[in-house]
Amino acid sequence: MRLSTLLLALCLSLGGLGFIPAARAEIEVDVNKGDVKPLPIAIPGFGGDRGAEISQVIASNLERSGLFAPLDPKGFAEQNLQIAIQPQFALWKAINAQALVNGQVTVEGGRLRVDFRLWDVFSEQQLLGLQFTSTPENWRRIAHKISDAVYERMTGEKGYFDTRVVFVAETGGRLNRTKTLAIMDQDGANPSYLSDGKAIVMSPRFSSNSQEITFMSLRPEGSSIYLFNLETARRESLGEFPGMVFAPRFSPDGGKVAFAVERAGNSDIYVMDLQSRQARRLTSDPAIDTSPSFSPDGGRLVFNSDRGGAPQLYVMNGDGTSAARISFGTGRYTSPVWSPAGDFIAFTKQTGNTFHIGVMRPDGSDERLLTSSYLDDSPTWAPNGRVLMFSRETPGGPSRLWTVDITGRILRPAPYPGSGSDPAWSPLLN
What we know:
By secondary structure, the chain is mainly β. About 10% of the residues lie in helices and about 40% in strands. The chain has 2 domains: about 40-155, Rossmann fold (3-Layer(aba) Sandwich); about 165-425, Neuraminidase (6 Propeller). The strands form 7 sheets. A 5-stranded mixed sheet has the order 2-1-3-4-5, with helices on one face. A 4-stranded antiparallel sheet has the order 8-7-6-29, with no helix packed on it.
């Protein structure tokens, strides 16, 4: 769903829109510290229709990031803040609010307009003033965009709240489990289901424009890889392949799909040009090569292979040449995925009976394990490269979606209440 007629501007006042340089904050959130104390932030209910709901979504987004600590509105002495009037900073200092977000919602000609301000309470400075307009049903997306703006202003990094997640929704027991292709907002809202559950779906992945996904479908007669357009609901197969096809993933420009083909116990990696529909084989090792993931510039791929005796991570050029192993720790490395910024590769690692989500540099250095549990799998990057979503399963329990930041400190369940696996995070929406 597009946020139509989006107006984004820095504001000098309520009456005039224009660009002004934001005052330098005396407060900031250093996301690179190993132990970040969440910043106390006050987010009173915005004025106007849906104002309270919008502010609640903003507060929930920022709290879930682990970098902000929204204060309890019951302690707010100043009520009904006006967008064009400075807050009474002394009242906010008294409850130790470091930052304050207030806003106003108006409806004009069937359009929803939301103005908001971000304040540094102790320096008594406005840090940000923005206005968004859209149709009323898009109020949640406006709340996500405000969350992104606050996050970026306070941390210096892009936000990740105005995004969606495609995943496999699971129902039923182990012997009769139904796997359905599903999509939701990153905060678990607006879930919808894109397949009928009659076939097993696996490894859904977004294209770079967020409007198309690729996934694997498994039926008794075999497997297929599909493209699914989220705007038109059109589904098409990539074609017929001898053997089983799986693990598809788009190239960064959306023009290619890399995937694996298994024949007679051997699996190799292919890449298909989506315009010509010509597929090219990239690996020919007598081993299991699978789970390809492109670097952000499309020039290299990371994949996992057991050509060394156990699953490890390898990097090769986009044409399949110069494959080199990058993981050398003990254990089994699988499901690699390159970060959006190119600085890390996330992976699943199994050591004994324990699974981890970890990250390492593309040359294999700086390996860090972020999680540890009975079964963690399928990491996917938020578009800012700061947070990972993955699936976690407990003994005898269902698979759930979780998130962790790249320090490993901020670990928590994702908001989706049902059972899910194989998540894939979209880029920021337009």
